[in-house]
Amino acid sequence: MPVTREMFNDVMVPNYNPAQMVPVKGEGSRVWDQAGKEYIDFAGGIAVNCLGHCHPAMVNALQEQSQKLWHLSNVFTNEPAIRLAKKLTDATFADRVYYANSGAEANEAALKLARRWAIDVYGEKKQKIIAFTKGFHGRTFFTVTVGGQPAYSEGFGPKPGAIEHVPYNDADALAKLIDDETCAVMMEPLQGEGGVVPPAQDFVKQVRELCDKHNALLIFDEVQTGFGRTGTLYAYEQLGVTPDILTTAKSLGGGFPIGAMLTTDAIAEHLKPGTHGSTYGGNPLACAVSEAVFDVINTETVLEGVKQREALIKEHLAAINEKYNVFKEVRGKGCLLGAELTEQFEGRARDFLLAGQEHGVMVLVAGASVIRFTPSLIIPEEDIKEGLKRFEQAVAQVVG
User: Fold this and answer.
1) Which residues participate in the annotated binding site?
2) Is 385 part of the annotated catalytic residue set?
3) How confident is the model at residue 370 (pLDDT cuts 50, 70, 90)?
4) Hey, is 373 helix, strand or coil?
5) Which residues are noted in the entry as N(2)-acetyl-L-ornithine-binding (predicted)?
6) How much is the pLDDT for 358?
7) All domains in the chain, ordered by first residue
8) Which of 250, 256, 294, 327 is catalytic?
9) How far is CA 360 from the centre of its chain?
10) How many Å is the maximal CA-CA distance in the chain?
11) pLDDT tens digits, one per residue of 16-55
12) Is 202 part of the annotated catalytic residue set?
């Protein structure tokens, strides 16, 4: 049956508005559509395809595991799940791992665990959760309410309660709101969807200190920043702060759906059998692929390479900006970068995205005025240069 983009409009729920072209093949950091047109991929499936498309290590892991065991449910465990959990705990602060299928599910688990821990240890009154405006934590009703973008959570009826927000990078506002009835503070160590906003100096340390003062858990949502994206396995390693709970997804599977929540023994013990679960969580296929991704990424060569790619991309964006003066600021870390548009082009990030597609380069937006770049962590230098050359043509087109 021939498939066309028009068919999407007939058969899919209209909550997405995908590009007019339909990608059919990917290899490394290049993608081809139905017409055979080639694109350089700076979008990376929204910070997911950390090893690009069809990386041999991932393909081999999937093929090998697909001939052994696909699914069991959590009535049983499996070898890939245990191996991956051991590697994750050995490489981080955590002692324990809970598997899910997505970042939202990992965050849902983290929030439920925080509430359960607080009730078990301190009683029913300790239930307040504080998060940050413009934060993003997923689309389940609990996580989208904790996320600080009301447009995503309004219009669905009564929201989960005892959730409050303060501006990101405003430790004074947090200090006024946090109290002994706060069970957790949830934050991204570098805001992604909210505009690629880095934490101010000492802000994260101040958040940690306030959590300690009020016996609240600090939850780091590292769904977008994690698994090498910022140049260390997890971003918290660069901030001098250790969270109590960390969530990870996106790059964790390199394109295969998997999420995980990491925490300590003392906190984990509050999710006893039956308190939470996931039919597909810890699926052998997903864990086998994730383990292969881990083995490639958690090396000095790749993590240092992420920092080199950051410098190269920023250098080329600065050169583009010298010519066209479209960016107010380029910010972010590693392969999670955002170019904020000047007032002249405010609200037009999507125009640059669409022009990019015309010229054979895929980028993202992070709000209406920020162009986001989340390429493969191992994107070759020649692809960076070629992709930014095409992006410059797109900028020239929009500027007119």
Assistant:
1) 103-104, 136, 139, 221-224, 278-279
2) no
3) very high
4) strand
5) 139, 278
6) 98
7) 5-55+300-399 (3.90.1150.10), 57-297 (3.40.640.10)
8) 250
9) 24
10) 62
11) 999 999 999 999 999 999 999 999 999 999 999 999 999 9
12) no
For the chain, strand residue ranges (E) read: 23-27, 30-33, 38-41, 96-100, 128-132, 163-166, 182-187, 217-221, 245-248, 259-263, 327-333, 336-341, 361-362, 364-365, 370-373
Annotated catalytic residue, options 136, 227, 256, 352: 136
Can you list the pairs that 23-29 forms with residues at least 24 positions away whose Cβ atoms lie under 8 Å?
Answer: 25/53, 26/52, 26/53, 26/54, 27/52, 27/53, 27/54, 28/52, 28/53, 28/54, 28/55, 28/376, 28/379, 28/380, 28/383, 29/53, 29/375, 29/376, 29/379, 29/380, 29/383, 29/387
Q: Which residue do the tokens 């005025």 mark? A: 369
Q: Distances in Å between the alpha carbon of 302 and those of 293, 299, 377?
A: 11, 6, 7
Query: Could you confirm whether 10 is annotated as catalytic?
Result: no
155: left (phi over 0), alpha (psi -120 to 50) or beta: left
Structure tokens given for 177? 């709101």
* Phi, psi (deg, nearest 5) at residue 91: -95, -5
pTM of the complete model: 0.97
Give the pLDDT confidence of 318-358 residue by residue, as tens digits. 999 999 999 999 999 999 999 999 999 999 999 999 999 99
pLDDT-derived band at 195 (thresholds 50, 70, 90) equals very high
- 33, 41, 221, 383: the catalytic one is 221
168's tokens? 């990101």
Encoded amino acid at 209, one letter:
E
The token pair that represents 275 in the structure block: 């308190």
Those residues with Cβ within 8 angstroms of residue 237's Cβ, 6 or more apart along the chain or in another chain:
none
Q: Which residues contact 312 (CB under 8 A, 6 or more apart)?
A: 381, 384, 385
φ/ψ of residue 159, rounded to 5: -95, 160
Distance CA 222, CA 225 (A): 5
End-to-end CA distance of the chain: give it in Å, rounded: 41
Alpha-helical segments (H) within 51-102: 56-66, 79-91
Annotated binding site for N(2)-acetyl-L-ornithine: 139, 278
92-134 confidence digits (pLDDT tens): 999 999 999 999 999 999 999 999 999 999 999 999 999 999 9
Q: In what order do the strands lie in the sheet with 364-365?
A: 327-333, 336-341, 370-373, 364-365
| pLDDT value for 62 | 98
